[in-house]
Amino acid sequence: MATRTGSVWEYLDLRLPRGTSRETARVLLTGAAETENWELDRLRLWPDGRREVRLRRRVYRMMRTG
């Protein structure tokens, strides 16, 4: 069984302003996950209601075959 080492990730940082509802944030993040293959890496909720979200997705490198 081969193991993967040295994965390369691409990151996207989002900042959602305070007052953004939980449902709106969920719809936004679900859409990014389903259509663009992003996954949640980190979510930070500040006391004033702001959210900082970091999404990530794996970068696939194409290997030359010939």
Structure commentary:
- This protein is an alpha+beta fold.
- It has a domain at 15-58.
- The protein is 23% helix and 35% strand.
- It has one helix and three strands.
- The protein has one helix at residues 22-36; strands at 9-16, 39-45, 51-58.
- A three-stranded antiparallel sheet has the order 1-3-2, with helices on one face.
- Strand 2 and strand 3 (51-58) form a beta hairpin.
- The two termini are 25 Å apart.
- 5% of the residues are buried.
- The model has no long low-confidence stretch (mean pLDDT 88).
Question: Which SSEs are present, and which pair or pack?
Answer:
Blueprint lengths: L8 E8 L5 H15 L2 E7 L5 E8 L8
Antiparallel strand pairs: 1-3, 2-3
Classify the secondary structure makeup into a structural class.
alpha+beta
Helix content: 10-25%
Number of strands: 3
Order of helices and strands: EHEE
Q: Describe the global form.
A: elongated
Percent strand = 25-35%
Search tags:
3-stranded antiparallel beta sheet; 23% helix; 66 residues; elongated; alpha+beta
In short:
The protein has 66 residues and is an alpha+beta fold.
